[in-house]
Write a structure and sequence with these properties.
Length: 307
């Protein structure tokens, strides 16, 4: 199952007992990819950023199944000032911050390696060479097995990959961006300043670079496809959205699926890894069900070119 489980609320809004139940259900269904970060969810009152990793670490210790999961975590966005709920004091991607970041993550997760280690932000105050060199040191020490870039625009990713190739360093082979079925208005400025939207350019780049996997987050827009109390974000408010939503609902009805499941199936059909932040078993089961949906060329065409 090529779906990653998002874990922002694990250990906080999702209690530890329920966290264990969701992780158990996900892995029992064949899921392996677990996505977290060293700062989830620092922006909530009373949280430090330890919570998600610590909850996953407790589950891994209880189940003894570390080698059967693909553990994905991030560095760069953890606040350095207690109580800061913005990115103003983020640790960044200096060599010192990268080394300290992985040490903290490994301790909280109770493991000696991370399968996919992401730069959570694009810290342009630090030379790419410094960050990449530090990541390569971690790779050579066996602490990380694959390197990913989260919230990095295409030209910066290309530059980073070229630098890594020139120095013989571990390259970025994963990219994580915000993406869903609906298309935003051009030149959209997101209210979440740290998020970077997938663009036609980044999607094409990921398709062309065969060693690069694109993971996508906010795939279900926090329930906006199916919940009346969760309006579609205003930056999707344009003429094209109406047709896409109509096509989505028609295809879902024909397949006996939910709109959420069709969105995830649409992403999977393109070779993307959707991250789903389930907080209940029902939400998780809905996402798991999407893995069994096949969209043929005709259905994909209807979704991609609605009338």
């Amino acid at each position: 199952m090529n779906i990653a489980l998002g874990t922002i609320d694990f250990g906080t809004r999702v209690a530890l007992k329920d966290t264990f139940a969701l992780l158990d259900r996900f892995t029992e269904a064949g899921g392996t990819m677990i996505d977290t970060a060293n700062n989830y969810p620092f922006w909530n009152e009373g949280c430090t950023g330890d919570e998600s990793e610590a909850a996953i670490g407790a589950w891994l210790a209880a189940r003894g199944n570390r080698d059967s999961v693909v553990l994905s975590t991030k560095v760069g966005g953890r606040p350095t000032i207690a109580g800061d709920t913005t990115l103003g004091s983020a640790e960044g991607l200096s060599a010192k911050a990268v080394r300290a970041g992985v040490e903290g993550s490994l301790r909280r997760l109770g493991t000696d390696y991370v399968d996919v280690y992401w730069s959570h932000i694009d810290d342009r105050s630090v030379p790419l060479e410094e960050s990449l060199g530090a990541f390569d040191e971690l790779a050579r020490a066996g602490a990380i097995r694959r390197l990913g870039a989260s919230n990095m625009v295409t030209w910066r990713l290309e530059r980073a990959r070229n630098l890594a190739a020139a120095h013989g360093w571990m390259p970025y082979t994963a990219l994580q961006l915000r993406h869903t079925y609906l298309r935003p208005r051009p030149l959209t400025r997101l209210p979440e300043s740290g998020h970077v939207l997938a663009t036609d350019e980044s999607l094409a780049y990921a398709r062309e670079e065969r060693d690069l996997t694109l993971w996508v987050y906010n795939t279900l827009m926090s329930g906006a496809y199916t919940r009346a109390d969760r309006p579609v974000p205003e930056f999707y408010d344009h003429s094209g959205t109406t047709g896409r939503l109509r096509a989505l609902r028609e295809v879902a009805d024909e397949l006996g699926a939910t709109p959420n499941q069709v969105v995830l199936a649409w992403l999977l059909a393109q070779g993307l890894v959707p991250i789903v932040g389930a907080t209940t078993t029902a939400q998780l089961d809905e996402a798991i069900g999407a893995a069994g949906i096949t969209l043929d060329e005709a259905l994909m065409a209807r979704l991609d070119e609605p009338r």
